[in-house]
Design goal:
This protein is of the alpha+beta class. Helices cover 32% and strands 36% of the residues. It is globular, with a radius of gyration of 20 Å.
């Protein structure tokens, strides 16, 4: 009977962590072979303010894939050259990630 409990516990553990291990393994495999990762989901945004001195972009945006609701907020940018290309009122599509505790625009396309 004890071996049945061990088998059931091991099976549950495998089923619980299997998808996470598989996803991590696929990402590592893609990285090692230079194949592109899945493109991030882009969110619509409206540029409210461009702060070149602070290297920030204030955007009014829809809900983000990470669960953040629609709002207006300042983001850092991974490419400061974007700040030269944008002005208040521009419509963009963007992806953002949390980097070192701050939300940063990591991909941006003008509409």
């Amino acid at each position: 009977m004890k071996s049945l409990y061990i088998f059931v516990a091991a099976s549950c553990f495998t089923l619980a962590i299997g998808p996470a291990v598989a996803a991590s393994s696929q990402a590592d495999h893609a990285h090692m072979h230079g194949t592109p990762a899945v493109a991030p989901v882009l969110t619509d945004g409206l540029v409210k303010k461009v702060d070149k001195a602070g290297s920030k972009l204030t955007l009014s945006h829809g809900p983000l894939p990470n669960g953040m609701p629609a709002m207006t907020m300042a983001f850092g940018v991974s490419n400061v050259a974007w700040l030269e290309q944008l002005k208040a009122g521009d419509k963009i599509r963007f992806a953002a990630e949390q980097i070192n505790g701050a939300m940063v625009v990591t991909r941006m396309e003008r509409n």
